[in-house]
């Protein structure tokens, strides 16, 4: 039986790809070895280290005493806190503490940012993150994620109110997420396209797996928690009725934003978290959930909206501000906006010609 023999050029490609680590890729993207470029590369490397530590914990959580379940506390969001939320939050703090890279860490799990004063004279960056997104999936071994955003430090924040963070999403200099699924994948952008790295446990390295990802202009997937139908504005109900009545749509909803977004990034479609009666501004937090994903999706040729405004233009009133989120393929987000902007009630949307 003939052995599959890689051709020399295939061997060279495979070896080169296996050597394209995250930190090397960041420097390649920046075409620079400046201090700023090195800092950004080092920050991404620390995020990768946090991802490896959390991935390791998740992969054995069922076997580790006290890894799963609730802490019995409620966070600033009013949500019950999982033990994994706290563990992951502490991992990010630990990996950045001695790094000299960031002055502040702003997290879904902390009411106020965590300051690393010894880094502030040096660190010119703030890391905003959701350490475990979708923690309702943790105890049942389904996919969860983390979302991160990197912003430049502006001013010295002497009163600790972090007002310089209350700026629109276009102030982000980098953003990404980690998906803890069958494999651990880190997706990021520094404004030069969207790129995915897969953790190779045998190497302990994130290796480049997809470069310059482009979200399709249209996809069949709509991703929303239809259990909230009774709480939605009529325009959202009209949109849902539309996709229920037209061929070519498929519902997919995993209960973890990162996994649902990852599916849409690669296959197209739209993720929706509209405002509800109980949460008129929606559930998802702007600075460390929606805005980082909006940064990515625009880099990938897609679109993110509050329904009436480009998500990246939204200026938060507070660190934990929420917004409705409609994100994904530009045609599919535009259709949702069409219903929301109420034009659809008078005439058939132009895109209906598609079906
Ligand atoms: P619901 C997880 O708690 C999360 O913040 C996102 O990851 C997810 O998309 C959303 O909430 C799920 O919320 O109301 O559908 O359970």
Layout of helices and strands:
Blueprint: H1 8-18, H2 22-30, H3 35-59, E1 70-74, E2 80-82, H4 83-97, E3 102-107, E4 114-115, E5 125-133, E6 144-152, E7 172-180, E8 184-189, E9 195-200, E10 205-210, E11 221-223, H5 234-245, E12 250-251, H6 257-267, E13 270-273, H7 286-299, E14 303-305, E15 325-328, H8 330-340
Parallel strand pairs: 3-5, 11-12, 11-13
Antiparallel strand pairs: 1-2, 3-4, 5-6, 6-7, 7-8, 8-9, 9-10, 13-15, 14-15
The structure holds 6-O-phosphono-alpha-D-fructofuranose.
Residues 133-134, 136, 225, 255-257, 283 line the site of 6-O-phosphono-alpha-D-fructofuranose.
What would you say this structure looks like, in words?
It is globular and about 50 Å long. It has helices at residues 8-18, 22-30, 35-59, 83-97, 234-245, 257-267, 286-299, 330-340; strands at 70-74, 80-82, 102-107, 114-115, 125-133, 144-152, 172-180, 184-189, 195-200, 205-210, 221-223, 250-251, 270-273, 303-305, 325-328. With 355 residues, the protein is α+β, with helices and mostly antiparallel strands. α2 (22-30) runs antiparallel to α3 (35-59), α3 packs antiparallel against α4 (83-97) and α5 (234-245) crosses α8. The termini are far apart. It folds into 2 domains: 7-210, Fructose-1,6-Bisphosphatase, Chain A, domain 1 (2-Layer Sandwich), CATH 3.30.540; 221-354, D-Maltodextrin-Binding Protein, domain 2. β1 (70-74) and β2 form a beta hairpin. It binds 6-O-phosphono-alpha-D-fructofuranose. InterPro entries: FBPase_C_dom, FBPase_class-1, FBPase_N, FBPtase, Fructose_bisphosphatase_AS. GO terms for molecular function: fructose 1,6-bisphosphate 1-phosphatase activity; magnesium ion binding. Mg(2+) 2 binds at residues 130, 133, 289. It is an enzyme of class 3 (hydrolase).
């Amino acid at each position: 039986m003939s052995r599959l023999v890689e051709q020399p050029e295939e061997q060279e490609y495979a070896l080169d790809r296996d050597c394209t680590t995250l930190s090397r890729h960041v420097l390649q993207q920046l075409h620079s070895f400046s201090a700023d470029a090195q800092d950004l590369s080092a920050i991404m490397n620390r995020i990768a280290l946090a991802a490896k530590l959390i991935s390791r914990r998740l992969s054995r959580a069922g076997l580790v005493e006290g890894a799963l379940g609730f802490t019995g506390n409620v966070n600033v969001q009013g949500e019950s806190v999982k033990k994994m939320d706290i563990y992951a939050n502490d991992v990010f703090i630990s990996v950045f503490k001695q790094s000299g890279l960031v002055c502040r860490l702003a997290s879904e799990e902390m009411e106020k940012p965590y300051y690393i004063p010894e880094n502030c004279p040096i660190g010119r960056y703030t890391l905003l993150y959701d350490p475990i997104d979708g923690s309702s999936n943790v105890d049942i071994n389904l996919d969860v994620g983390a979302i991160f955003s990197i912003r430049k430090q502006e001013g010295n924040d002497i009163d600790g109110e972090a007002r310089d963070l209350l700026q629109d999403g276009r102030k982000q200099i980098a953003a990404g997420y980690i998906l803890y699924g069958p494999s651990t994948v880190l997706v990021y952008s520094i404004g030069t396209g969207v790129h995915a790295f897969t953790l190779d446990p045998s190497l302990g390295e994130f290796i480049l797996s997809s470069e310059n990802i482009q979200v399709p202009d249209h996809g069949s997937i709509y991703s929303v928690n239809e259990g909230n139908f009774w709480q939605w504005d009529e325009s959202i109900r009209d949109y849902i009725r539309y996709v229920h009545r037209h061929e070519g749509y498929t519902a997919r909803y995993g209960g973890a934003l990162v996994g649902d977004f990852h599916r849409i990034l690669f296959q197209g479609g739209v993720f929706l978290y509209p405002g509800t009666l109980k949460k008129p501004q929606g559930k998802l937090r702007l600075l460390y959930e929606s805005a980082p994903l909006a940064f990515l999706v625009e880099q990938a040729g897609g679109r993110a909206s509050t329904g009436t405004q480009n998500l990246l233009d939204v200026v938060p009133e507070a660190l934990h501000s929420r917004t409705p989120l409609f994100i994904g393929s530009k045609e599919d987000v535009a259709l949702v906006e069409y219903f929301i902007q109420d034009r659809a009630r008078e005439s058939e949307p132009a895109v209906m010609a598609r079906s």
